[in-house]
Amino acid sequence: MPPPSSTQQKVLVAQFVNITAASERQATKEMKPKTQQQRSISLNDSLIPIEPGVDAKRDDKDKMELESTMTYLEKHLGVNLENAELFIALEIVKAPNLGEITRRGFVEGWLSQGAGFTIEGHAAHVQKLALTLSDDDDLFRSVYRHTFVAGRESDQKALGLENAVVYWTMLFSPPGFAWKSENHDWLDLWKSFLDEKWTRSVNKDMWNMTLEFALKSTADESLSFWTEDGAWPSVIDDFVEWCHAKGIGKSEKMEVEHDE
Q1: CA 135 to chain centre
Q2: Are 90 and 98 in contact (CB under 8 A)?
Q3: Angstrom distance (rounded) from CA 59 to CA 83
Q4: What is the pLDDT of residues 2-48, one digit of tens each?
């Protein structure tokens, strides 16, 4: 792909500015008296708060903030905010968090996609990626890993467990990668295990290795790829032991020995 021209960059910058300006104009029309009340938007029962007294609709022109970001994603791109489409779009523009898109991320992200310079073209591109997300391991891995970046609170190095479970549910469900095998719904097992046994936050290593375990367990539900001296984080070791205790994932050899 040839390097982007200054004209192409200017077109995307203008689009970015127009989106934020349109949000401001609409906000002016729709503003209601109760500006001091805390407001929030729902994301599969996970709430993104807007602090009292903060007018989130007045965006800095170097970034879209919460109101503009959600309007852009849902109204302009037609993204379903309740499934993995949300994270596809956020990965494209390298959003630093769920409620913010920077001008640089927007311009450089769309230029890198080669998806043209119209909102309609960008919306179609997101839908095209959504159709291949479950089968394209490289795409899914990129989207999955950026979710950790965008999903954290700005001052935190880890994801809160409640939010991480919401994101796993979105990513491991259509149009994302179905974490299931012939006999087991691994996503449900994973969530049950966490609910019973895990109370801590989710760091980057746990987040990334959960994906690797998901890919392997989908292909090999006996979990024969797992060994006690492997490089898995302790939470994965505990999950495998939890599964074994329930008779899930034992190798044929182990089952024969148990029968004897």
Answers
A1: 17
A2: yes
A3: 26
A4: 555 677 777 788 778 777 765 544 444 433 443 333 333 333 333 33
**How far is residue 117's CA from residue 15's CA, in Å, rounded to a whole number?**
8
The answer to whether position 93 is within a domain reads yes
Q: Domain ends where: 97, 130, 150?
A: 150
Contacts of 80 (CB under 8 A, 6+ apart): 86
pTM confidence score: 0.80
Give me the domain span that covers residue 132: 63-150
183 occurs within a structural domain: yes
